[in-house]
Structure formats: C-alpha cells, structure tokens
Write a structure and sequence with these properties.
Number of domains: 1
CATH class: Alpha Beta
CATH superfamily: Glycosidases
Helix content: 40-55%
Strand order of the largest sheet: 1-2-3-4-5-7-10-11
Order of helices and strands: EHHHEHHEHHEHHEEHHHEEEHEHEEEH
CATH topology: TIM Barrel
CATH architecture: Alpha-Beta Barrel
Largest sheet: 8 strands, parallel, barrel
Structural class: alpha/beta
Strand content: 5-15%
Number of strands: 13
Distance between the termini: 17 Å
Number of helices: 15
Amino acid sequence: MVELPQGVVWGAATASFQIEGDRAGRGDTIWDAFCRVPGAVADGTDGDTTCDHVHRYREDVALLADLGVDAYRFSVAWARVQPTGRGDFSAEGLGFYDRLVDELLGAGIEPWVTLYHWDLPLELQHTGGWASRRTVDAFVEYALGVQDALGDRVKRWATHNEPWCAAWLGHGSGVHAPGIRDHALAARATHHLLLSHGRAVAAMRRQDPDAAYGIVLNLDTARAGDGSDEARAALPLYDAVRNTVWLDPLAGRGYPEDAVSLLHPHLAGAVEPGDLEQIATPLDWLGLNYYNDAVFEAGEGAVPTVELVQPGLELVRQVDPGDAGTAMGWPITPDGLTDVLVRLQEEYPVLGPVVVTENGSAWDDDPAAGPDGVVEDPRRVEYLHAHLAALQAARDRGVDVRGYFAWSLLDNFEWALGLSKRFGIVRVDFDTLERTPKRSYLAYRDAIAAARADA
C-alpha cells in the first residue's frame, strides 16, 4: 500500500456529458452533433444514456461515501441548465444539480464544480463557438447563473477543464467536437477560452468573494525519445501550445513568444486591449490533470492513437509504447507528475496551490467479478500507486499540493472513443447500468483510510 500524504483533499472526478445521460430537457450540444457524424465516434455510441447518472446519482454518491473521499469533482452540463446557451435558465436542469449537491453534502462530501467540460450548447456553435468573442459573454452569463443557484453551498469552482482539448482537439485536429481542422480557429479559441475564464472569475468573485476559484489544465513534459534533432526541435514548440500558452497569460506574463511566433497572426489578432489583464485575474488554486508525458521521435505523421494537433510537429511523431502503455496507447510516466508539479512551484508560484484534479488510466478490464464481487484491474492499481508516490515525491520537494482526484469514479463515454475505453475505478455494465467496484476502488479506499488513521 502507498502511504498518502496528510493534509490533502482526496476525491474522485467525473464529467457531465460522459456520465449523465437523460436528454430530456437538455439542449443539444456540440458533442451530440459530433456523435451523429458517421465515423466520428469509434464505436458509434453517444451520450444519450452512458451511466444514466441523472437518475442514479444517489447510488453514485453512495459509492463515493463508501470510498471515503472528502470531495467530488463534477461538471455542470451547460445545455442542461441553459438549453440554448443564452437567456432563461431551466428550473428542471438546475434542480438536478441542486439535488446532487444536497446529496453530496448529506454524505459529508464537498462538491467541487467545473463549469465547462467541453459540452458547448450547439446554438452557440452556430454563432461561432469558442472562435467567437460572443461565446465569452455567454459563458460569463452562464457562470453567474449557476453560481446564483448553487453558490450558497458550493465554494470550490473551476471555470474550464482542459481548455487545450477544447481548442486544439476540437479545432486543430478535429478529433473532438466541434470537429474543426483549422489552426487559426484553434488559436482564437485558445484566447477566448482564457478570456472567458478571467472574466467569469472576476464576476463570480464579486458575487461571492469567499469562494475559491480556479481553472484546470492538462499539462505534461515533452521528451525526445530518440534524441534526434527533429524531436529536440519540436519540444519547445509542443511546450508552447500545450503548457505555456495557458500558464503565462494566467500568471500575468502575456502570451509566450514561442506561442505567438508559432500561431501568429491568429493568436495576436484575437487579443484586444484589456484582454490580458482580465485573463490574469488572480486564482485561488490551479487544477492539474496529468496522465502521461509526451515522448517524440523523428518521423512524419502520428502513430494511430495520436493525431497531429498543432503546428510545429510536422517532422515528429509520438512514440508508441506498445504493451508497456495503457489501453489508450499512452506511456506510463509517473515521474512526469512530480516534474510538472515541481515546475509549477518553481516557475508559476503566483498561480497558487495545485490540486491534481484528474489522474487515472484506461485498461481492458476483465468484466467478470471475482468471488468477492470485485473486478480485478491490477495494472490500474499499479498506475494509481505509482502516481500517488509521485505526488508524495513532489510534496517532499516542497510543492504545495492540496488535493488529488482519481479519474474516474465510473467507466463512461470516453469522447471520440465512445464506450470502448474504461477509466473507472467502478465498472459500469452499459447494458444493465450495474455498478461493480474494481480492485483499484478498494486500493484507493484503503489508502485514504490509512492516511486518515495516521493524521
């Protein structure tokens, strides 16, 4: 068993489109439209049912309570509470989150709410989506409306989850909704996502100065796996779009030169007077989603599991780890979590304490439960233990890490891969919707309990 550090919030995380199901009353989103495109989702599934969390949230909160977590991180479906993305809010949609928050608090679990996890209302996409400044105004309106409904009980807010994915997988490679392949639009989306964050935090803080506000970024370190000149040359270009184009403006430094040079004039052309000051609105905490580092080698094009997303990587491809990687084709690099946490502490202390808001792995689990009723997932347990040890290593080096959220509580709809990839520490039978804990669930539960016993 891995010894967990004390003084850390332990939690689990999910996202609205991936688990909620129940289209009744919810407006159409870019992901609903994307799922209707033939071939866009690997197995042809969609978000209409997934885990049916809207109807089974009490069961899922009971799983969280048994797990022993302090907090649950979930996202609000914008189109559930504001079906068109502007104007009137849905009492029915807000009512679901109202009941969920009360259920969590009744179980002694703190709600951590993410406002945007990629499911933009489709009508906003029709008016330009994140490539348009109008969506910035819509997001601030939405954020204030949700806070008005839940803010008497919710005090931990994140504006965006992994805006890199929304901008660059959605608009760069087009492998995510809205399925656009245009680096100019991806650059504009980058700026508008950041701007909407800064403006929303400022507005929400005026409405509730006692709450804590953050943003969740997926950060990693790029490495030259073969030591080639091509791979080494790609590293700062990758870092500019994956990491510093988000971190630097949030820290009040403006956009980094590497990113502006790579994305000019598209990025620079989107910036208006006062934007950078609004983006740099102070944070109370920074969320880090970490899964693996990026390892590059010389060679044009991408391996099948990785799309060429951004400019500057035309002469390299990511190394395929083969059987040594996860079911996503991702390498397992726990030391990279320590490295990113240390980098944030050393280079971006102004962004505040860090919370690891997602960390987990997908595996092809054997669906059969053992005699004790538990699904065995030994490699997920190994991954979990290795990354908890990496978190402790960062704490030992003085990094102010305030929390860890396992991804994910449930097997779910894994975006363009549909229901084919399982990240959950609880197995979901997508035919019966039965939930079955996995060995990783018990391992995490035991580690949390041991940490509390040592406190």
